[in-house]
Specification:
Elements: H1 18-25, E1 38-43, E2 50-58, E3 61-70, H2 73-86, H3 99-106, H4 112-137
Antiparallel strand pairs: 1-2, 2-3
Length: 139
């Protein structure tokens, strides 16, 4: 089971690197957007982690991103890190992101259960990319 936390509410754990802990204690883009273009929710049924993602597009560029969530250090810090790097990228580029890209970003070796926590923010992004494709590219 993941330990449920709000960002910034858990003591540092030596298991996690400093960058990951900084993103957990001081998450980037932890906000609710006004009038997002797309939104999604990703849920991990194994531990109950949730990521609520919203973004705004200018043409097909991610111009603004916001997230909220409940979950462990890994899911919330990864969301902050991942969503920071995809801002100002095309929505189409999200389709190219892989689980390996996320693991390279957070620089942790994870077992299967914790891997699901780390990949949860990517699942939220991929859901939006899929919605975008259905709405704009399949006409």
């Amino acid at each position: 089971m993941c330990q449920k936390n709000q960002p910034g509410r858990s003591p540092s754990m030596k298991l996690y690197n400093k960058v990951l802990m900084d993103h957990y204690h001081n998450p980037k883009n932890y906000q609710k957007l006004e009038c997002p273009t797309f939104d999604s929710i990703a849920f991990n049924p194994l531990c109950g982690d949730k990521i609520y993602l919203e973004l705004k597009l200018a043409d097909d560029i991610i111009s603004e991103i916001g997230f909220r969530g409940e979950g462990c250090i890994i899911s919330l810090a990864t969301a902050s890190m991942l969503f920071e790097i995809v801002t100002n990228r095309t929505i189409k580029s999200i389709e190219l992101l892989s689980d390996k890209d996320v693991l390279d970003l957070i620089k942790l070796e994870l077992g299967l259960n914790r891997l699901k926590c780390a990949i949860l923010p990517l699942e939220a992004l991929k859901a939006i990319a899929k919605d975008y494709k259905l709405k704009f590219l399949n006409k």
